[in-house]
Design a protein that fits this description.
With 333 residues, the protein is of the alpha/beta class. Helix content is 48%, strand content 15%. The chain is globular, with a radius of gyration of 21 Å. The two termini are 15 Å apart.
Length: 333
C-alpha cells in the first residue's frame, strides 16, 4: 500500500467517523420502541445504507412490523404498509388509470408503491403476479402504468415479512424473486429478561415512539459515503471465494456437501456481500472493510441464495450450516 493511499484511507476513516454519527441516533430511537433484537436493527440499517431490500422471516409477534415502522418514523419520508392477501391485484399495488369527468380524460391514480419505505406484510400471501409487480419495482426502481413509466423516489426500500410456520394458502416466493432481496433476516424469540421488559413497556399508559431525526437527502448522502468505504482486493477475493464455495464444494474441500446443494449463490450474492460489508463497516464507524465485516453479514446475504437438494433436507442440513462450514474453511486474508 502506497503512502498516498494510506493517507487517503486515514482521511476517509476520519470523514466516515464524523458522517456516521447519525447511526447511533437511529439505533437509540429504535431501541426506545424495540426491546432487544439488536441484530434486526443492525440489518435494517445495513439495508438502508447499502440500498438493498430486506426479507424478514419470523413467527408472529416478534415486532417485525413494529421495527420497520419505527425505522420509517426516524426518517422524514413517505411510508406505506401493504397487507398482502390472496385477492390482491397488481393495480392495488402500482396504481391504475381512472377516468376524470372534469378533464374528460384518463388520469393516473398512483398506488401505495409510490413511497420511500414499503412494508410488504406477509408477502407470501399474495399470488405470483402481485409479487412480480413488487419485485420489478424493487429491481428497476420504476413503474409502468398503461404507456407511462414513472421513476420511484429515492430512497426506496422494500422490507417484506413472511411467516415460516403457516403455509396454508400461501404462494412461496420463487428463487429468482427471493434473490432480489439483499438480506434475509431470520428473527428468533427474545430472552426472558427482554420479554419481561416488553411486557412492562406494553403496560405503560403511553407506548414509546421513535422521533424523526433524518431527512431522505441525509440517507442518500450517507449511501454515497458508504460507496467510498475502502474494500481491499484481498477482501474482494475473499468474498468471491465464499460465493464460489457454494457452487463448487469439492474444490474447497467441502466434500460432505457433494450432492447437497442443487444450485449455488448467484453473482448478485457477491455484489450484495461487498455492499453489505461496506455498510457494516460504516455502522461500525470505520472507513475500510475488514474480513470480520464480511463474516458478520454473510449469513443474511447468503442464506436465501443456496438451493438445498432433497438429500440435504432429508439429512436436516440447513443453508446456515453450509455457510458456517464455508466460513471456517475459506482462507481469511
Amino acid at each position: 500500500m502506497s503512502m498516498n493511499q494510506d493517507v487517503d484511507i486515514r482521511e476517509l476513516h476520519e470523514r466516515i467517523q464524523m458522517e456516521s454519527s447519525f447511526v447511533d441516533l437511529i439505533s437509540m430511537e429504535m431501541n426506545k420502541v424495540i426491546v432487544g433484537q439488536k441484530h434486526l436493527i443492525e440489518c435494517l440499517l445495513i439495508g438502508l445504507l447499502a440500498d438493498g431490500h430486506i426479507l424478514l422471516e419470523g413467527v408472529p409477534g416478534l415486532a417485525k412490523t413494529l421495527a420497520i415502522n419505527s425505522l420509517a418514523k426516524t426518517v422524514d419520508a413517505k411510508f406505506a404498509r401493504i397487507q398482502f392477501t390472496p385477492d390482491l391485484l397488481p393495480a392495488d399495488l402500482l396504481g391504475t388509470m381512472i377516468y376524470s369527468q372534469k378533464n374528460e380524460e384518463f388520469v393516473v391514480k398512483k398506488g401505495p408503491i409510490f413511497a420511500n419505505f414499503i412494508l410488504a406484510d406477509e408477502i407470501n400471501r399474495a399470488p405470483a403476479k402481485v409479487q412480480s409487480a413488487l419485485l420489478e419495482a424493487m429491481q428497476e426502481r420504476q413503474i409502468t402504468i398503461s404507456d407511462h413509466t414513472y421513476k420511484l423516489e429515492e430512497p426506496f426500500l422494500v422490507m417484506a415479512t413472511q411467516n415460516p410456520i403457516e403455509q396454508e394458502g400461501t404462494y412461496p416466493l420463487p428463487e429468482a424473486q427471493v434473490d432480489r432481496f439483499m438480506l434475509k433476516v431470520v428473527i428468533t424469540y427474545p430472552k426472558k429478561e427482554e420479554e419481561k421488559l416488553i411486557v412492562q413497556q406494553n403496560l405503560l399508559k403511553e407506548f414509546p415512539k421513535a422521533l424523526t431525526i433524518l431527512k431522505p437527502e441525509d440517507i442518500i448522502r450517507a449511501r454515497n459515503i458508504v460507496k467510498d468505504v475502502y474494500l481491499d482486493e484481498k477482501i474482494q477475493k475473499y468474498i468471491i471465494d465464499i460465493v464460489f464455495a457454494t457452487r463448487n464444494t469439492s474444490e474447497y474441500k467441502l466434500n460432505q456437501y457433494d450432492g447437497m446443494i442443487s444450485y449455488g449463490a448467484s453473482p448478485r450474492a457477491s455484489i450484495c456481500l461487498a455492499q453489505a460489508a461496506k455498510a457494516y463497516a460504516f455502522i461500525k464507524r470505520r472507513g475500510y472493510v475488514v474480513p470480520e465485516d464480511v463474516r458478520a453479514v454473510c449469513p443474511e446475504v447468503m442464506r436465501h441464495r443456496i438451493g438445498l437438494s432433497y438429500e440435504a433436507e432429508a439429512n436436516n442440513i440447513t443453508s446456515e450450516q453450509i455457510i458456517s462450514d464455508i466460513l471456517n474453511i475459506v482462507e481469511v486474508p
